[in-house]
Q: What sequence folds into this?
């Protein structure tokens, strides 16, 4: 009997079945934010609802070998973005320098990180976006096919291209009580740029998808192919994300008695 073959949308190979439980964001991003009932609260911008989930968004949408490959990037990100494996060589390799400066707006802080494995961190950010798109969970504006195909090609390529889709990562301060908000990737428009944004474990990830010239600050902050990046430190409350999230959580709480 002939088995119906499936085409994996990530690698385009024919497979008999997909991996059974692919997370759109890795599970370690959820475990950081479990509340006392061991459930993560998620906010969906578009549907204006808040849901509690135990194990996050997952589904069957990529093949097993794509799942194994993507987990390598998820694992690398957990090593460098959290302190859960302080003795791991990849964790220890990252150098982080803290800077403060004063301007009209007050006291500002940022960090410079070096020795990042550029391809692995880029792979993590890209695969979070690709999985969200493939699972049909991308919120906000639409990611068009042209950009989707280019992001997919970049994910599979060995190129050290850090300019076509620059990645900017914002860090929330360690004492920020909102730092563990989890935001599933969505597309927004800001100052004429289309940006895919997601957040979790004290970091906000911004990927610029516009074809036109990026602004200077994007070029100076972005993750560079020499393994460095600058992370502006902003409390979650100071970001537009906070105000949107608060508004939606308030509205949803009125509707849903479950929270
Ligand atoms: Zn595949």
A:
């Amino acid at each position: 009997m002939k088995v119906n073959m499936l085409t994996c949308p990530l690698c385009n190979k024919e497979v008999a079945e997909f991996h059974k439980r692919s997370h759109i964001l890795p599970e370690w991003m959820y475990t950081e934010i479990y509340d006392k009932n061991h459930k993560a609260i998620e906010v969906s911008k578009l549907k204006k609802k808040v849901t509690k989930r135990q194990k996050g968004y997952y589904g069957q949408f990529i093949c097993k070998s794509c799942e194994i490959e993507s987990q390598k990037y998820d694992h690398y990100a957990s090593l460098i973005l959290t302190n859960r494996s302080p003795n791991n060589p990849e964790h220890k390799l990252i150098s982080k320098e803290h800077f403060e400066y004063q301007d009209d707006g007050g006291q500002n802080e940022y960090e410079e990180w070096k020795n990042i494995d550029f391809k692995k961190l880029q792979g993590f950010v890209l695969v979070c976006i690709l999985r969200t798109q493939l699972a049909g969970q991308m919120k906000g504006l639409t990611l068009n096919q042209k950009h989707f195909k280019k992001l997919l090609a970049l994910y599979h390529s060995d190129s050290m291209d850090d300019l076509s889709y620059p990645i900017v990562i914002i860090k929330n301060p360690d004492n920020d009580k909102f730092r563990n908000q989890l935001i599933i990737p969505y597309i927004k428009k800001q100052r004429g740029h289309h940006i895919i944004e997601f957040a979790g474990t004290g970091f906000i990830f911004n990927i610029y998808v516009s074809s036109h010239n990026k602004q200077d600050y994007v070029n100076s902050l972005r993750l560079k192919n020499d393994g460095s990046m600058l992370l502006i430190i902003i409390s979650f409350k100071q970001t537009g994300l906070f105000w949107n999230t608060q508004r939606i959580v308030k509205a949803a709480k009125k509707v849903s008695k479950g929270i």
User: Anything to note?
Assistant: Residues 35-39 have pLDDT under 50 and may be disordered. The first strand starts at residue 6 and ends at 7. The chain has seven helices and 14 strands. Residues 8, 10-11, 13, 62-63, 65-66 surround zinc ion (CB under 6 Å).
